[in-house]
Amino acid sequence: MSTLPITEAENASAQQPLTTRSDAPLLICLPSLTADGLQTMRDRIAAALPGQSLLIATPDAVEEKDSSDNITMLNLATATASDAGWALTASDYAAASHLAAEHHAAAILILGAEALSLSDFGLLGLADAVLAGKTDLALPRYKTGPHDALLSSALLYPLTNALFGTKAHLPLPLDVAFSPRMANRFTMAHKPDAGTQGSPLVWPVAEAATVAFVVREIEAGERTLPQPTETNLNALLAEIVGSLFNDIEAKASFWQRARQAMPVKPNIEPVRTITETEHLEDIRAMAESFHNAYTNLQEIWSLVLPPQSLLGLKKVSRAPAEEFEMPVDLWARTVYDFVLAYHFRTINRGHLLGAFTPLYLAWIASHLRKSAGDAALAAFHVEETAAAFVAEKPYIVARWRWPDRFNP
Amino acid sequence: MYQQIESALRQSIQRVLVVLVRFLPGILALLLAVVLFTAVGFLFAALVRRLLTAVRFDERLASNEKTGSPTNFSDWAPSHSPTLLVSRVVFWICALAGIAVGISAFDASYFADSQLSQFVLPYLTHILGAVLLLFFGSLVARFLSRSVLIGAVNAQLQYARFLSLGIKWLVLVLTATMALDHLGIGGVIVELAFGILFGGIVLTLSLAVGLGSRDLVSRSIEKNIEKPMSRPAEPSPSSESSEVPRPKLRHF
Residue B74 and residue B56: Cα distance in Å, rounded? Predict the structure, then answer.
């Protein structure tokens, strides 16, 4: 297995001219679409990648006549099609990898639900990144507002960046492109297990980072982000955060070694947060909710968090809505403490993840107040958070290695 | 006079010595049985631990468990290792068997007409049962009270702590009553006291929840009535039911 150095996850422009493409076909796996949707998608792909030999796999029924000179239509086994919808799971990667190996594809591109909303340049950028042969994993970076992809902004991106040294704003991608060797890696890392319930989530960035594969982030413009059908936020958080914490635990030997995280430098100056925003009433409700959580969950949090963090949270809970703020360094430490408690099973994992929800909602309240509805300010706050995670990384490394030195 | 005293003392010493002579083998048998069975238990436990480690029992079990599920074996095991739990259970079964065999041997070698083992052994098992009941009861009480507390806080209920305490005491009272009943202590008084206490806690909780969340319940009923007429699109996890309108948050 090659060990190319991890390069900085560049934001490649889709308009960049394509250098060299492989003659082997590109496998594109589509989600289930209507007949019209499938035709539209097929036309868009053909227009975006002229002359490229393509294999388009879909879980919907396809006929021989659908294929043309450059495009071969394939059936994607429905049994392995995504069961999450809003994110790609191990079964999606496995099905795509299997098809790619069968047809000797040069690269694989999986498009998630609502694929029609993905921009043409996003589609081209993802395909080009892996077809050029210099990238093993290409992840899209969609244009999001201050209220979008909050879990990624608060937790998934900062943690992935700090621990795995790869900058990917959406570590749980909806669309992804990868090389055949990355596909092999997915197949090896996530062998199907009849005993496990459902298809587990896959953290491709961590998989790529552990084998020093090249990861790139591609600007993909705006896209409709499908939301999970499960409406219980606590259950969803427990599933996703639990899965990420498990992955962090499994790859501890990798991130424990000294590794440079991607530099996170917000490129705009923070603007003084206005005192009255259109969401102040909502932030007030969220602040009150956090105050209630602090009063009630203090006993459980004290099993997980050190006194210093508890004191910090106390200050946060007492702050009025106009000044409500979860300091980014406190948030980073809190998340690291929860990762540690998850690893050491300080308390029942279900309880631990349940007790995490109010803290996450407090970060959101702080994010909403600081961003004040402005996408640039929101992006600044996200980068500020990511930088705090990088700065606090020695804390988790030390406590992971020597847990007995400190007990809350 | 002196001879009579001397004779009485001699006879009493002789009787004590006879008793000791009869008693010592029983004690020795008891100790031997306990030590032997404990050693066997230690060996079995080590064997089971090695065997389970070799077949990666912990990993296999963990891969089949769902995060947060109360039925997760690992969360209940010491040091969260099911292998350790199984090996310890094997050890203690052997140790307890040793104690039972020892008491039986002690009884056999002590007095021929003694019914010690017939009385002690069943009561010992009752005591053990009661201790286990108390142990698991307190575990379940803590687990349930935390579950209720976290669930209630996430549902933004103001009386989350009160609800959690109520659940905890309900389970603890139930456990204590079961343990006392198991030991045969208290009889009808315990049952009566339990009924009064349990009923009291349930009534208090019902009143507190009923009065405290009257608005919540009425809103919930209103929502359910209104839903079929103007059902909006599938709600996102962000737009959870809440009295305060919130910005459309998208967590994913």
Answer: 13
Contact (Cβ atoms closer than 8 angstroms) between residue A175 and residue A125: no
Q: How many domains in chain A?
A: 2
| Closest approach of B66 to chain A, Cα-based (Å) | 8
Question: Comparing A303-307, A383-387, B47-51, B193-197, which segment has the lowest mean pLDDT?
Answer: B193-197
DSSP, residue by residue, A196-246: SSSPPB--HHHHHHHTT--EEEEEEE----PPPS---HHHHHHHHHHHHHH
- Minimal-distance CA residue of chain A relative to B235: A231
3-state DSSP assignment of residue A258: coil
Q: Are B145 and B206 in the same domain?
A: yes
ipTM of the prediction: 0.80
Distance between B241 CA and the closest CA of chain A, angstroms: 10
Strand order in the sheet with A215-221: A11-12, A215-221, A137-142, A176-178, A107-110, A26-29, A54-58, A71-75
pLDDT in tens, B36-49: 999 999 999 999 98
Residue A150 to residue B149, Cβ atoms within 8 A: no
pLDDT at A311 over 90: yes
Regarding pTM above 0.80, the answer is no
Q: Is residue A237 a part of any domain in this protein?
A: no
B132-176 pLDDT tens trace: 899 999 999 999 999 999 999 988 887 888 889 988 998 998 899
Q: Which of A157, A233, A281 to mutate to test the interface with B (most CBs of B within 10 A)?
A: A233
Which residue, among A174, A241, A349, A360, would best test binding to B if mutated, counting the most B CBs under 10 Å from its CB?
Answer: A349
Residues of chain B contacting residue A347, judged by C-beta atoms under 8 Å apart: 146
Q: How far apart are CA B83 and CA B74, in angstroms?
A: 9
Phi, psi of A54 (to 5 degrees): -125, 145
User: Do A177 and A47 share a structural domain?
Assistant: yes
Residues of B in contact with A172 (CB under 8 A): 252
Shared-domain flag, residues A315 and A174: no
Shared domain for B10 and B106, answered yes or no, is yes
Range of the domain at A93: 11-230
Which residues in chain B have their CB less than 8 angstroms from residue A354's CB?
A: 68, 147, 150-151, 154
Report the pLDDT averaged over residues A344-373: 89
Cβ distance of A239 and B151 shorter than 8 Å? no
> What pLDDT shows up at residue A14?
38
User: Of B74, B150, B156, which is closest to A289 when you measure between CB atoms?
Assistant: B156
Residue numbers of the domain that contains B102: 1-64+77-114
